[in-house]
Amino acid sequence: xxxxxxxxxxxxxxxxxxxxxxxxxxxxxxxxxxxxxxxxxxxxxxxxxxxxxxxxxxxxxxxxxxxxxxxxxxxxxxxxxxxxxxxxxxxxxxxxxxxxxxxxxxxxxxxxxxxxxxxxxxxxxxxxxxxxxxxxxxxxxxxxxxxxxxxxxxxxxxxxxxxxxxxxxxxxxxxxxxxxxxxxxxxxxxxxxxxxxxxxxxxxxxxxxxxxxxxxxxxxxxxxxxxxxxxxxxxxxxxxxxxxxxxxxxxxxxxxxxxxxxxxxxxxxxxxxxxxxxxxxxxxxxxxxxxxxxxxxxxxxxxxxxxxxxxxxxxxxxxxxxxxxxxxxxxxxxxxxxxxxxxxxxxxxxxxxxxxxxxxxxxxxxxxxxxxxxxxxxxxxxxxxxxxxxxxxxxxxxxxxxxxxxxxxxxxxxxxxxxxxxxxxxxxxxxxxxxxxxxxxxxxxxxxxxxxxxxxxxxxxxxxxxxxxxxxxxxxxxxxxxxxxxxxxxxxxxxxxxxxxxxxxxxxxxxxxxxxxxxxxxxxxxxxxxxxxxxxxxxxxxxxxxxxxxxxxxxxxxxxxxxxxxxxxxxxxxxxxxxxxxxxxxxxxxxxxxxxxxxxxxxxxxxxxxxxxxxxxxxxxxxxxxxxxxxxxxxxxxxxxxxxxxx
RNA sequence: GCCGUUGUAGCUCAGUGGUAGAGCACUUCCUUGGUAAGGAAGAGGUCGUGAGUUCAAUUCUCAUCAACGGCUCCA
Length: 647
Hints:
This protein is an alpha+beta fold. The chain is 36% helix and 26% strand. The chain has an eight-stranded mixed beta sheet with strand order 16-21-22-29-26-25-23-24, sandwiched between helices. Helix 3 crosses helix 4 (117-132), helix 8 crosses helix 16 (526-536) and helix 13 crosses helix 14 (439-455). The two termini are 60 Å apart. It binds one RNA strand through strand 12, strand 13, helix 8, strand 22 and strand 26.
């Protein structure tokens, strides 16, 4: 007999060889029908795998993350079975469950066959047939030499590649129906659990994620234990699309693009420009408080500067090709830092001048690959909330921390709470290729940045191979409504460019030293930040950011005089106000104002004129009662000045 | 850049091997109406661009450009 400890602490005795499924049955048949896998001593196992020793056991169902991922991984095998039956001879790479987006994929080499969306429908149909057969997922262990022989016989170079990295004695295969795959598992008990199937996408994916390798076909899908859950998921996707910044950006007149202008080049419409100006106003105030001075620099510079900065050796792929003028090559700038370094160098500096902080909403151009462009989130002309801080090593901690505090201050204003702080480190094997070749300085500065995070008690994750070419950084990662991850803001250390530009200051003992440089962009770029804000607020911007803050809606033409009076008073108070003076019914004016997401609507009719008051309507909330003109102005001006979130 | 999908009026979308349609928006007129669409009339498109097949192409084929979903890459 063995002892099985359940999550509530209860210990039950079972025969050796009992399965998690048997344990579930001993509790209730209903539970047994829902068990997808089991957590055995901290490891996820098949629910059908025999337990031969004492163990702590947690039964995993659809409600557990591991239950879902087991379900989806098994679905990937089901899809592979369907693929193999419809397209014999294909070769499989890997088919994991995914979290973001939820579901699974399988990377497959289809040879010369090009898969189309019609094939997806056929595959879906086949999967449904196979699922109904409720075939068991059967686990089988195999010695490595046998496994190698098996795949060598099939001529399957992908699985042979996988086997290379596996230890003998730990190699398992899983079969269901007519399909067998090298797989670590675990799997759900049988295919019958999979009741609702949707294959979502065909995409190319480079083998092992390397663009030099062959491109495999990646099939994406999602499955659920019931049709109802699939329908709910699809409805959720539809909802998310409504807050997509590209849709909102068009509806609200924020920005536009044009084929004749070029890919990834944003033209800001008047409404979007208002948002830009408000953000810049906020940045200027905040930076002035933080001891920054503003500068302005040109959009181009000569090749020599980018050789000095290291951009040409390390960053050339992301730069527009040069233009030749008078025998010189000029580049559009992809970063503002070199220009700022030249400003630092323009006059001799002493330690008394440090920290020297200069800021600019700098326009930079990056030649992003065409397939990477994405609405406002990924563009080729960016306006960066940039600044550079030149400081001594001793000042670094305080300066870096002050920058982090500035982030948090901004995030509070915008109610940003769903983000991940990422400590982005270099990757030693890419020194001299992607990263400046200074192993010791990398080590030191990475340690400095980590310390600031720890001292400031900021939760963070560490990731390799995400640093800038000149130093480590802290990135603030956010997710678009589509689920795509982006760096919203960044705070970087640079130990390299100070030396390459020969930047110096005179120390207290009259020697020369090179400053450390902090690059920071807490508001990222206008493009990405506004894209983010549109999605974050679902287009319902707080009053201070709203392009139109108040819309006056007279009930009929008879009240236009009063309406003009009110409008003039609001204008004078600095409020962005518009009036709907068409001969339309009030219902229509309200509907259109609501759809355009104007935060305040003022309905004016006979009653308001007689009393000298306003009927105030708040977007999304309906009629909120009546106020005098002065009362309303007092409230809204306060709301704007305080940059209130509106909720 | 690579794989897949799409491209018809300002917007959202029907549609056809015989040179196109709806709703909203727009213009004009009627209506002056109290909290999410009042009525009528009108105007608006060489069907992304270029080539090919055909008696005939918006429709079929190819190329190209762009957008979208991924991969790679990134603020």
